[in-house]
Amino acid sequence: MELAEIDLTDLDRFTDGDTPWRMFEVLRGQAPVHWQPEPAPNSGFWAVTRHEDILTVERDPETYTSEQFVNLEEVDQEQIARRRSMLETDGSDHTALRKMLMREFTPKAVAAYESFLRGLTTRTLDAALPLGTFDFVREIAADFPISVLTRMLGVPAEDSPQLIDWGNRIITSEGSDERHRDLPFRSPAALEVFDYGRRLAALRRGGTGTDLVSKLANAGLSPTEFDTNFLLLVVAGNETTRHAISHALLALIHNPEQFRLLREDPSLLPGAVEEFLRWSSPIYHFRRTATREVELGGQRIRAGDKVVLWFASGNRDESVFEDAAAFDVTRTPNNHVTFGRGGPHFCLGYALARLELRVLFEELLSRVRAVELVGGVQRVRSNFVNGIREMRVRVRGV
């Protein structure tokens, strides 16, 4: 692939599981800070693809702000006011929102979910594995993050399928309808999420509950702030981890020697989880906006330019990861940037994601001798979420 062929805005290039990585490889080698034109009404962005440069931007929110929004869409001040969540704040506002929720996401707090997760895993595998052939995403991967999320939000477990559906519809929204310009991702599904969250908040406002909905409802947020941050929890708490789970299994299918290694030595799993996260890179990118003129990677960036951090590319940077294109469950060190790294927007759910991945694969690998694909893999058509929509597999027991 030639540099002139690169187009990070073409969503069709993100559906085959190969083209994005070839584009990133070319960019890292030839133009690690590369100007990418965009179709109107957007105005283009700087694509940052090297690990070192990603960290430079991530750790400097004063120069590279999130407050002009973190996806590629360019929004006006009215949209910003109506759509801002914790993701799109910096400074003291961001710190206050994180502090309000952080206690529920510490490693100590999420460790309390391990026995629940192990029981959930057992029930899920008991139902799926006897089928022999099934869609791994629907039967297994989707259950874990959403089931924990419903407990943390304090919502009925039977609402899980609806939460999954809303997340899918929001993430895959084409975002072209002007009627929905003030909604996250311009998705009408956001209105359904808002209505659901408001009904929950009305029941818990003024109470002493410790669930996440109660915390948001009693935090003094405006109605709009409640809506957008509730939606963030619903989408972020579900989409990313289930895609990481699916990508991890796909990597094990394509690398059977790594599958056998983990089955023979389960003590490798905590380290393997880091490789699952590096390899899966469930979020391709996040955007920042330059607040001043600055030089990055030899390029002069102007104030107001969009600067897009391609975390997925940073996770395959050959200058950081030996044999970066190889899936290696024994890789150490593993300084991936899947959760961000060292900056104020480091993923709040990092400990929970690690726990979910570890428990699921501990249980799965103890019960399954081999897994093979049945047909192709259907991927999410997105340059934001690196997701798998459907992946049919055939399993053989121990």
Automatic annotation (TrEMBL):
In the record, biological process GO terms are: cholesterol catabolic process
Question: Annotated Gene Ontology MF terms?
Answer: cholest-4-en-3-one 26-monooxygenase activity; heme binding; iron ion binding; steroid hydroxylase activity
What keywords does the record list, in alphabetical order? Heme, Iron, Metal-binding, Monooxygenase, Oxidoreductase
The answer to keyword Metal-binding applying to this record is yes
What Enzyme Commission number(s) does the record list for this chain?
1.14.-.-
Tell me the domain of life. Bacteria
Q: What family is reported?
A: Belongs to the cytochrome P450 family.
Q: Which PANTHER family match?
A: BIOTIN BIOSYNTHESIS CYTOCHROME P450, P450, PUTATIVE (EUROFUNG)-RELATED
Q: Would you tell me the protein name for this molecule?
A: Putative cytochrome P450 126
Which organism is the protein's source? Kutzneria albida DSM 43870
